[in-house]
Each structure stands twice: as structure tokens, then as C-alpha cells.
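Lab notebook page, bench 4
Experiment: in silico fold of construct C2
Operator: M.H.
Input chain length: 366 residues
Purpose: comparison with the prior construct
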Amino acid sequence: MRRAAVAIAAGAMAVSLAACGSAKESGDNADSTASAKKGDDIKVGLLLPENATARYEKFDRPLIEKKVKELTNGKGEVVYANAKQDASTQNQQVDTMVTNKVDVLIVDAVDSKAIAGSVKKAKDAGIPVVAYDRLAEGPIDAYTSFDNETVGKTQGEALLKALVDKAKDGQIVMMNGSSTDPNAAQFKKGAHSVLDGKVKIGREYDTKEWKPENANSNMEGAISALGKDKIVGVYSANDGMAGGIITALKAAGIADIPVTGQDAELAGVQRIVTGEQYMSVYKPYPQEANVAAEMAVALAQGKSLDSIAKDKVDSPTTKAIPSVLVPVVSLTKDNIKDTVIKDGIYTVSEICSGKYKAACDKIGLQ
């Protein structure tokens, strides 16, 4: 699915890309990842990190399964497992996939470092690995995700826009994601590049396991430390945490301050409609999922990735990984129709159900 109408400018895709690297380093040589070419009858292992965030079960899994079927004339099989935020469980799941002799793995790592040994096991067994959404360590063959620093910049820019003059007088709280997620570090870096020097950061947290309840506790601590009259906005790295943050703000009697988010979860979009949350980052999951499926099928069939992956990125352990980075969009109440509704992620009736109908009517979302 392509989104010319809503895609950010091409310049926003700028990332630190490796200019060169050998096929041996990157796994770009099909011979290094497949001992023999296969047809459409392939088995794709799909390992997702958790099911607390709505996107994985609602979007990623079914989209990848659908695309694999399309690319293999209905003959390809997707074998699925979810680690439920447990790195050890995910390592065991890789072992099981290797034992079951899948032809390729798509892995969204719970912990990018902890997965490295399991990635090597798969590679040693002749199974190529596509790092999905998070850049896992180990001998990865391909990678697709969103431009994560741009996600953070997009959030930071939106927050500054919402604050206007309040940025000079008050303080914000930064609620970053999990320290074990390399994406969280990139979101944070991007946000800091925009926010530093423009607004005072009163408190900042790395939120364990991205859990909303941990964000809620952190926010309660920030309110207690800073005082509820001193907080003018909150940088939240995703929508799930934004929900926990907003609950803490309400409990403290704090209203009408901007809170950011990411993932365009239904609950997040509904909070944007009501004004409780200022924005989210819409990440076109169909495009990311389609690319992952294309990479996986090509690798399983012993084909080159040259026509799919035009960029290369470096991980801490592997150089010049063939990669596709997908652009993102700042989602506010002003462009809900042109993003998640236009792209078929949600319908108006889903967003505007029950208690949200009046707020939808107010902003012309009908």
C-alpha cells in the first residue's frame, strides 16, 4: 500500500546508512542464506515480541500472513509465535523454529542484544533472518522498520507546536520506551534533537517493558516531584504509555496539556478526537509488513534482495544489512480522515462509537 498523499518529505527518510559493505558482512548474497532455491512451498517463521500493544495481533501478523500467501500463490505457510515480552521465551521460540526447519525467520526482537545468539543458531542452520521493526543483533540478512529518529523528531516537533509560548515557562516530562528496545533509543535521540534547548525537561524516564502501568507510576512520580502546575506537556513515546500517563494526569487534576504518542492505536486515535491526547505517529503497517514478507520470501527462495532493499544499515554486530525504511506521518485530529481512515486501518464507525460520537461530530469526523 503506498501513501503518496500522506507520506512525509523524502528528506525525512535520512538515517545513518552504511555506504558500503561486503556481501559476506550483510548476508546480501543469496548463496549465503539459502543452500538451494525453493519454489512457493515455503515455511516462514514469524516471531513477534508481545501482545499488549494492539498493533502486533491486529495489523502485523495478519498483514504478513496475507502477503506471504499472495507471493507464494497460496502455498507458503506462516508459523507464528508471540514472546509476550519475554526475551528467554523468544530465544526458545527461535530454537523451536530451527528444529522445525522453517525456511526463513521474521523476528521482531523483545531484546535486540539477547536475541543475537539465537539469530546465529538460525544462520548456522542455513535459515536467513529478517529483522522486523527492531534491528536485532547477530548475523541478520535483512531489515525493515520505520525511520525511528524521524519518529522522535516528529513527536518533538508536534509537542513544541502544541506548547507555543508555554515552552518558555513550564517543564515537560519525557516518557521514553524500554531500554532494551533499540528503537526506543532512536526515538529518544530524535526527540531530544528537537526539544533540547527549546523547553525544560523536568523529568525523564526509560519505561520498563513499555508498559502503560509503569508509565502511569512514572508520571505520578513526576507530578509529585515537579508539582502539577509546573508541567506543560508530556512526551510519550507511544500510545499505550500515553493512556497510562493521561490517567495519572486526570487523577492529579491536570487537563488540557499536550501528550504525544505513537502507533495510531484505536484508543489513541479516540483520545486525539476528544482532545485528551494531542497526537500520535501513524506508521503505515501494511507497507512495513509487505516489505518484510517480500524479503522473507525472496530469501527463502534463494533470490537477491537488490530489487527490494535499496538502503543498507549497520547494527552493532553486522555491517551493511539490506534495509527498507518506511516514512511516518504526524497524526492529529486534523488528518484522521487522510491517514488511518483513508488507508483502511479504521472506519469512522470504529473511531466514533459510543461516547466518542459527539467529539467526532465536533471535529467533522462523520
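Observations: The radius of gyration is 21 Å. The chain is about 40% helix and 15% strand.
Next step: discuss at group meeting.
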